[in-house]
Amino acid sequence: MLSKSLFLRRPDSASFAIVITMNQNGISDLATFGQRLRHFRRLKALTLEQLGSLVGKPAPYLSLLENGKREPKLTVINSLAAVLSVAPALLLDASPPNRRAALELELDRIQTHPLYAEFGLPALRSSARVTDDWIEHLSTLFAAYRKARDPALATAEDVRRANGALTRQLEDAHGYLAAVEAKAGEALDRAGYRGSGAVSSRHLTDLAASFDFEIRTVDDVPASVRSVTDLANRRIYVPQRNELRTRAARKVVLQTLAHVALGHSSPEDLDTFLRHRLETAYFASSVLVPEAPAAAFLKDAKASRDLSVEDLKEVFYVSYEMAAQRLVNLSHPHLSISAHFLRSDAAGYVWKAFAGTGVPLPRDEYGGVEGQRLCRQWGTRAAFQSADKFGIHYQYTDTPGGTFWCATHIEADSEPHHAVTVGVRFEEAKFFRGRETKRHTKSACPNGACCRRPPPELEARWEGSVWASARSQSRLLGILAPDPYPAVDTTEVYEFLDRHTD
Question: Of 96, 112, 136, which marks where a domain is finished?
């Protein structure tokens, strides 16, 4: 889709330019624009006739705009913004202005969906007599019907809803999945693991054999997958470069075996798919960092006031990220410490998160954290600016939810580089290595102005003199992806299995 950039001026500042990207035909979502126009008009307590007289347009024309039936010219957008005392960018924002507007937009989308047309029902307008609960019930029922017909049709909103529900479940469990821990313990017994320390390659081979699987390393595993499991011949294929002694290969094999150990079947809906993904990752980490020896190790470290992710990493020979997750998993049931976990990129966008401490993480409307952007004052972003970028960055941060201590490590072997953070409340930092740090910042996020705008003196010096081109390709590709499931080339996988079947 071709696009163009429009430079719009805020009515209260002649020098402030806002860059809005529109498609080649103009505004990309007329329905959302109409909802936002209606929202700001009502905030001003203006009727369509009154607004029309102020901008020099007839009320019927404005009604067409609010109902998404007509596209305004740029001069009209600027006039409307000036009268409504808002920036043009607020009118053109792609998000609904409130929950009711989001529901009405969802109702419109449902009624234009090809599957809905199969019912042959007359069009229904979302008037004031149609309550929020009614629309929400209809959208939920239709989403269930749509996914029953084709789970791959899940929308971005479906993903956010399912992910938010899973996030709440994990937080209610304090990040500890007892049932999966028990299955991991049974798997370790089957593999003959009886001691402490790292789980060996021999243990993994014996574990696979106990489930009647053979592990084979080959050099032509399809690029779209991490491994291929041949259920007919009971073989697990992993890339030859990932020998079993490497961390990556051990994790891949265990995540594959987890489906068998946990009794997973093919997921029929998005909620099950996301739950399976969480459980297989948790199973792999709880086998590679077994609960009993890890808990004993952490208890000794707590008694010495020397808890650290890096020590757990070295003892069990796992990645820093896996060690961080296991420390957070086990800290509440075994150490009586609440901890939080973050994995984010240099721009501050969250890839994984668990907020066991009540730290005020940014969340979407369903309570999910993934995809949200962290405050630049937090340690997980400040670490990227540290002089010792790949060391451990310790920091205290004052937030609206209290003061938190955190340890952040940037994993140099990932591309792009990601920061992995473990944090606790101020009063529990005394048990961790790095508590003596002098780094101390203050954040008002996610609800305050904080880092959303530059400091006043910096803004005064540069406002109106800079234009920066955003690096948005990767995020746009994520939004545009039609399928929330990992992309797998089925033909490529089948051809691979043909080559390796006796």
Answer: 96
